[in-house]
């Protein structure tokens, strides 16, 4: 037995060295690619068609560029009372606020008495944003690409005949999904708001929580075709500068046609894309984003999706739910310990059953072993085939329940599982004990708060089942060691993925599986936050016994007076 464990340790250390060499080679390849990377076409100057001073020429160019699409509205009008000043308003139907355009733009320009033919056209261009149009933002533009980009985000272009420039008025609007309760991160206690598809609304929701001028945002456009607005948010003085620079650097290196969801950005900036574990956290709750920003993390908002990315991420973070900080520390700690235990059950449950029944029956109590053996007597397959059949069947039912309409999806998955499980047992294909193991494992996978980790466990479960079928518990132990080595080798924007467990950070250990009381969480995680790590003052503990005694004495005094 001792020689076997020595061999196992030798294999583990050799795999760890191989993993380190592979990571070093990947970093070298990345640096070589960055150095040899050709200049992207987006950085090259393109030949632009200049704006013409003729209104008709500019409108014809817009119609030609957009294919004369019916949703591109071109509204020609005469500015001023009785003047002959030809102007035009161009916007995209459905992306603008029609009340803004009609009341504060078109009506103001048509009825303004100071506009007349004797005015210089450049003078009119200056008067429109200063005296005529009562909108929040109006700016001048002579670049066609920027003009089309502004129009396609809900702004309105104003053209004046005789001027080779245009005005961009802020009229964003249209129909959007209202703020609703989060559908993926449901909590018993806490705020009920969830993010929507508008990045501007999401940024404002976080600002309502953190009323601090040090909450800074930066914006950029990604996607050569979609021109998706991506914003990063952080608290100046809390976020580490090296992490912030790394986030900016990775975002600016993205050169792709389309960004349709935050998942695109996550896959293009994560540290180890070959790992089954996510190294970037995502959520659709404003309070979760605010809490992580206050710890020193950086949030990435992508327009068009309600899910916000948070970096850097650590492994234990995926087992923390929203209401952990809204409840008492003893209850939160017990539930966190339950989540970690459930994670191990969902990862190792079928593998333990396979290893125990195939290689180590002496570890099973005798009475239970007799029952299991009697159940498996009529099953024609070994335990690993039995487990694979049930696991694959349950995965099919789970995927079908998700993709089907909500009215019948849950019913089909539940009824299908009951019917198929009962029929498989009666047909002698699987044993009742295997059905129980697979059912407990499936329910355990649903108890993990983060879906990205739960789906990773669904894949790794099959690897542990194969290891247990080949070498029993020794194969499971070897696979578990390899998994731990892989987790310890991961990084998230330079932060060790297993922090504060490995390397050990005693101050950060108070918010892992066990959560200290709020009055003891005096410091932010030092491996994430910058120098300003103190987040609460002294003497935050609730009233001392002396205070309670004084209150009791005062109550007695009040009773005597009465």
Question: Can you describe this structure?
Answer:
The structure is a single chain. The chain is an alpha+beta fold and 562 residues long. Helices cover 48% and strands 11% of the residues. It contains 17 helices and twelve strands. Strands 1-2-4-5-3 form a five-stranded antiparallel sheet, with helices on both faces. The chain has a five-stranded antiparallel sheet with strand order 6-7-9-10-8, sandwiched between helices. The protein is elongated and about 105 Å long.
Which keywords apply here?
562 residues; 48% helix; 3 domains; 17 helices; five-stranded antiparallel β-sheet; alpha+beta; 12 strands
Mean of pLDDT: 84
Overall geometry comes to elongated
Beta-strand content estimate = 5-15%
Low-confidence parts, pLDDT < 50 over ≥5 residues?
Answer: 33-47
- Percent of residues in helices comes to 40-55%
Structural class: alpha+beta
**Rg, Å, rounded:** 31 Å
- Largest sheet descriptor: 5 strands, antiparallel
Individual helix count: 17
Give the distance, in angstroms, between the N- and C-terminal Cα atoms.
79 Å
Q: What are the secondary-structure elements, in order, as H or E?
A: HHEEHHEHEEHEEHHEHEEHHHHHHHEEH
Strand order of the largest sheet: 1-2-4-5-3
Strand runs, count: 12
How many structural domains in the coordinates? 3
């Amino acid at each position: 037995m001792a020689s076997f464990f020595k061999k196992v340790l030798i294999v583990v250390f050799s795999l760890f060295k191989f993993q380190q060499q592979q990571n070093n080679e990947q970093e070298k390849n990345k640096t070589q690619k960055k150095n040899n990377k050709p200049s992207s076409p987006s950085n090259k100057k393109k030949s632009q068609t200049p704006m013409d001073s003729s209104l008709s020429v500019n409108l014809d160019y817009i119609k030609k560029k957009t294919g004369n699409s019916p949703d591109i509205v071109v509204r020609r009008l005469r500015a001023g009372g009785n003047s002959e000043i030809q102007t035009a308003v161009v916007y995209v139907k459905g992306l603008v606020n029609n009340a803004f355009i009609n009341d504060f733009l078109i009506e103001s320009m048509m009825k303004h008495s100071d506009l007349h033919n004797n005015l210089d056209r450049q003078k009119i261009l200056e008067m429109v944003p200063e005296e005529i149009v009562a909108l929040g933002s109006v700016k001048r533009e002579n670049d066609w690409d920027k003009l089309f980009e502004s129009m396609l985000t809900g702004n309105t272009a104003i053209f004046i005949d005789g001027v080779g420039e245009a005005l961009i008025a802020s009229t964003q609007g249209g129909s959007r999904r209202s703020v609703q309760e989060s559908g993926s991160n449901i909590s018993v206690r806490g705020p009920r708001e969830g993010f929507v598809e508008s990045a501007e609304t999401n940024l404002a929701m976080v600002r309502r929580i953190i009323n601090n001028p040090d909450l800074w945002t930066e914006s950029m456009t990604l996607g050569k075709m979609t021109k998706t607005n991506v914003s990063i948010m952080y608290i100046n003085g809390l976020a580490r500068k090296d992490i912030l620079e790394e986030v900016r650097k990775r975002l600016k290196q993205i050169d792709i046609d389309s960004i349709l969801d935050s998942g695109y950005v996550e896959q293009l900036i994560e540290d180890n894309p070959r790992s089954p574990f996510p190294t970037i956290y995502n959520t659709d709750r404003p309070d979760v984003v605010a809490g992580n920003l206050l710890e020193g993390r950086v949030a990435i908002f992508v327009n068009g999706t309600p899910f916000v990315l948070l970096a850097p991420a650590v492994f234990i973070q995926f087992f923390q739910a929203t209401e952990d900080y809204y409840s008492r520390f003893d209850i939160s700690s017990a539930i966190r310990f339950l989540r970690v235990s459930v994670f191990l059950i969902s990862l190792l449950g079928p593998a333990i059953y396979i290893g125990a029944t195939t290689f180590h029956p002496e570890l099973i109590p005798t009475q239970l072993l007799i029952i299991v053996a009697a159940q498996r007597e009529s099953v024609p397959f070994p335990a690993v085939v039995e487990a694979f059949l049930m696991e694959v069947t349950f995965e099919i039912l789970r995927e079908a329940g998700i993709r089907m309409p909500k009215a019948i999806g849950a019913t089909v998955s539940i009824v299908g599982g009951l019917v198929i499980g009962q029929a498989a047992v009666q047909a002698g294909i699987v044993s009742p004990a295997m059905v129980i193991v697979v059912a407990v494992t499936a329910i355990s996978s649903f108890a993990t708060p983060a879906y990205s980790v739960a789906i990773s466990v669904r894949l790794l479960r099959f690897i542990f089942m194969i290891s247990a079928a080949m070498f029993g518990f020794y194969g499971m132990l070897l696979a578990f060691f390899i998994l731990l080595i892989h987790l310890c080798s991961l990084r998230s924007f330079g932060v060790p993925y297993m922090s504060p467990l490995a390397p050990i950070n005693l101050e950060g250990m108070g918010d892992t599986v066990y959560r200290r009381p709020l009055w003891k969480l005096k410091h932010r995680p030092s491996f994430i936050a910058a120098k300003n790590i103190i987040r609460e003052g002294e003497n935050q503990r609730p009233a001392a016994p002396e205070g309670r005694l004084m209150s009791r004495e005062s109550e007695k005094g009040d009773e005597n007076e009465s």
